Amino acid sequence: MNNNSYKFPEEFLWGGALAANQCEGAYNEGGRGLANVDLIPKGKNRFKAMEGKLESLNILADEYYPSHEAIDFYHKFREDIALFAEMGFKCLRISIAWSRIFPNGDDESPNEEGLKFYEEMFDEMLKNNIEPVVTICHFDMPITLIKKYGGWKNRALIGFYEKYTRTLFERYKEKVKYWMTFNEINMLLHLPFMGAGILFEEGENELQVKYQAAHNELVASALATKAAHEIIPGSMVGCMLAAGVTYPYSCNPNDIQRAIEKERENFFFIDVQSRGEYPGYAKRFLRDNNIEIHMEAGDGEILKTYTVDYIGFSYYSSRCASADPEVLKGMTAGNVFKSVRNPHLQVSEWGWQIDPKGLRITCNNLYDRYQKPLFIVENGLGAVDTVDGNGEINDYYRIEYLREHIKEMKEAVADGVNLIGYTPWGCIDLVSASTGEMKKRYGFIYVDKDNEGKGTLERKKKKSFYWYKDVISSNGEEL
Ligand code: BG6
């Protein structure tokens, strides 16, 4: 049988993905409180800020903060959703800005204007037969939770998050079935301020702090799963992993061991969220690094009982690991994680390795490991697009990237993987998370705005818009 004989399931969720802080803008409208993401500037201080090395927790006059306006989805979501509907989207992944719902995070009651905003957005989606897929926390949190409590390093956050999630489930129980607790939960190890609102104090054991924050998030995620199942019968709650298989650079056993360790650094989170307990290798890692996680009575039970229903993950690239110091000199970029350069792969303009087959391998690995439905909630090519003399954008490179990845998804389905959906990242151009640029575009829809924040914000369909529309209407047969 060849590839053409295998089909995506009829109910496959084709769509696209966005995140509040990268598309909404309106950072100080509608009663929204200030969030960590509002303090991450574009330019040379961006990475420092994402890591938690900020000069101040205030907005600085000499910095440009791309999230403040982003693509103004806050005011334009109706016209944008109409374009998604025109492409035939079956679902749309968005995230809720925590500080629109609880402006300070520890408020007594939620902000009605914020709740109403998302209610209207969900209504707009449902009117267009688009199923909402909601990330509860996509890198953002109210700044007060950082100033007063120290972000996720403080166990008190579990309670605030639980209240936030229960509020969402109660309010949107008739409208939203698919939820994800934390976007790319493993990112907190790499970008602790963006991922978990962590600022390190002088002399603090950074690993200890990060793993404590991870534990707090894991318990919070399990409690959210519990709450969703109680409040919304039939709801599906997923975890979300920044995934990508790690290949050993060679068949040297030291490279194999290194690749396994690198994979486990990420699997740790999902092993807890999906299997319900700390795996043996994680206990060893914590012991070897003198990390002592403060756990309270009942935590183990909570983690064990309230595991996720599906595995959501992003895939942009595979990674490569080596134990050889010479090989380690050849590193390349990629979704924050640096990787050894794989000589068999091409890279994007931003140095991210392009590996469609790695998606099939990642799907198989995740499915073999967890035996739960998989949802690819991010994938795509960040590239420079140009509007030609006729006002058209011929992004054939994006089509090629997506086509090759979808072919491999089909292979994974043929391998027996239970794949439920695909939401390519940044289905409309938005602010890049790693660089803060607009120039790094992922969308099927172009947004007229540049790196300095200039532009009309006008939307334009790219060539990939029409291509993806055909992909969806043929359920992945016409590529
Ligand atoms: C993922 C994030 O890490 O990758 C998104 O969940 C992000 O928020 C995406 O935008 C692509 O990364 P970048 O840096 O190209 O925007």
From TrEMBL:
Catalytic site positions: E378
Family matches, as NCBIfam families: PRK09589.1, PRK09593.1, PRK09852.1
Lineage: Bacteria, Bacillati, Bacillota, Clostridia, Eubacteriales
Gene: ascB
Protein keywords: Glycosidase, Hydrolase
Protein name in the entry: 6-phospho-beta-glucosidase
Organism: Clostridium hominis
Source organism superkingdom: Bacteria
Entry's EC annotation: 3.2.1.86
A molecular function GO annotation: 6-phospho-beta-glucosidase activity
UniProt family annotation: Belongs to the glycosyl hydrolase 1 family.
